[in-house]
Design goal:
With about 270 residues, the protein is α/β, with parallel strands linked by helices. It is built from 11 helices and 14 strands.
Length: about 270
Amino acid sequence: MVALDIDGTLVDHEGVLPHEVRRSVRRVVDAGVPVVLTTGRSWHATRPVFEQLGLPHGPAVASNGAVTVSFPPFQLEQVITFNPADVIDKVLREHPTAALAAEVIGQGYRVTRQFPDGDLSGDIEEVSVDDLAGSDVTRIVVRDPHSSDTEFIRLAERLGLHGVSYSVGWSAWLDIAPEGVNKASALADVVAGLGFRAGDVLAIGDGRNDIEMLAWAGRGVAVGDACAEVRQVADAVTGTFAERGTARELDRWFGVHRARGRVPQPATLAS
C-alpha cells in the first residue's frame, strides 16, 4: 500500500499537481496497489486532489488522522474529537494575538479571527472564543502570520500540552489534535481494514506532521525539502519537490515493475 502526504509531496505550495507526479501515482493505481492520501488538510480540501489523481474508491485520511473517509461516494468512516476549552485558554494566555480555527467537516472552518488569504478553504464563519471552545472539535489550528515556525515550536514547548497531540507546520501554524491521533494512528486502522501490515506500506511525506507516519511505515521516505527532524526518522530521502522526488521514489517501485507485471513485495520495500 502507498500512503501519500499532499502539500509539498504531491502538490506545490500553490496547490499545483505536476504531470510527472500524477503519472507516477497512476502507475501505482494501475498496478492494483491501494493509494491512500494521508494529509493535514480537511476532507473538503483533500477531495480535489483525490479527484485530480483519479483514485478509485477507497479510504483517505484527513485532518492529521482525526478524520477518515471513503470516497467516492463520500462516507465518513471515523471522526475523533476532543474538548478544546483548556487548550484554547492556554494558547491565548501564551499568545493572545493568535488566530484560532476549528474544522467543520466537509464544509470549512469556524475562526476567532480571519486567517491570511489562502490558508483555509471552504466556508469560513467568524465566532467568539467562547463559541469555539464550547463544543468538541477534531482539531484546533493556531496561526499567527507575524511569527515563525521556530517561535511556534517554542510556543508548543511552553504550553506543555497534555492529553492532546500536536504538530508545527512550515510556518507559524500549530495543529492540535486529540491525544494519540496522528497520521500513523489513522493509517494503522486503514491498513488493518485492507488486510495489510505496517511493513507493507510505502509512505512519503515532507512535514513535521509526517514524522509518526514515516517512522511507522515499512518504508518511510522524506521528500528532500523536509526539515532535519523529518529526514532523521525516514528510511530514505528522495529528491526535492522541484526535482520530482515523489515521482522518483514511486517510479523506483512501479516504473519498470509495471511493465513487467510485477508488484514489489514488502521485503523489497525496506531495501
